[in-house]
Amino acid sequence: MPDIFTQPHDKKDTPADEKPQQPPVAQTPKEMQSVPPEQVTPPPVNAEENATPIVQQQPANEVAPEKKVQLPSTKASDVAARAKIPSSPVGFFGHYKQNPNGIHFANQEDDEQILLFLRKHFITNLPWLIITAFLMVLPLFVFLLFSLSNFTLFSIPPQLVIILLAFYFLIVLNYALLNFITWFYDVGIVTKKRLLDLDADNILKHHLAETEIEDVVDVSYAQQGFFQSFFNYGNVHIQTQAIKANFEYIASPNPATVSDIISDLKALKLNGEKKHA
Known about the structure:
The protein has 6 helices and 10 strands, in the order ααββββααββββαββα. The chain is of the alpha+beta class. The strands form 3 sheets. The protein has a 5-stranded antiparallel sheet with strand order 2-4-5-6-7. Helix 2 crosses helix 6 (about 255-275) and helix 3 runs antiparallel to helix 4 (about 160-185).
């Protein structure tokens, strides 16, 4: 009986002189066996088969160039930019001027620069200008009306008519002059240190109010109606500390710019106080 444990029936006989094949083993050259591992040179690598991205590393002692980042404008830069605006004189009918030339006020310090000069927008004079023009031509219409109707209540000597007309026109001119003086001397001034508001009701009565920049709490403005939006003027409200009265620039031209200038001065003042603290 054949031994099934030592010689299976499906295994072919192998010649005695033929040895079983074994997987090839990489032979190490003799000259590399005695070389330390750190001195062994790796075999060349085919660049096409093992293509890997090449990363260029900068030397350790070389500093990478700094990227220039444009920082947003700060309050200090905004104030400095406005201070560099060329100064120019305020016109006779001027109502808005940055860095005005030839403007001074009482108790002004030597190093106190005026940044902003304000009056009410000139368009606010339109109502009294229309009324004045109507009153000036009213006697002419009255004279034509009585001439065409041939109606006279009583006879007036010509000399008296001239006197009455002169007195009438003086009243009209006085009305126009008072309105112009009220507009001309109703002035707002903004400096680097304080805010001033001069109100003139007439030639003999005026009121000056002022506050320091650090006393300003909040600044806002309001524009209402078509004319204020079209001609770009409005009211600038300045809230101060509780112990002081609030400020208000009525019918100020460019109210957004005025509000920004005062807010920038306030922020610059606060930053300066924090640095010294």
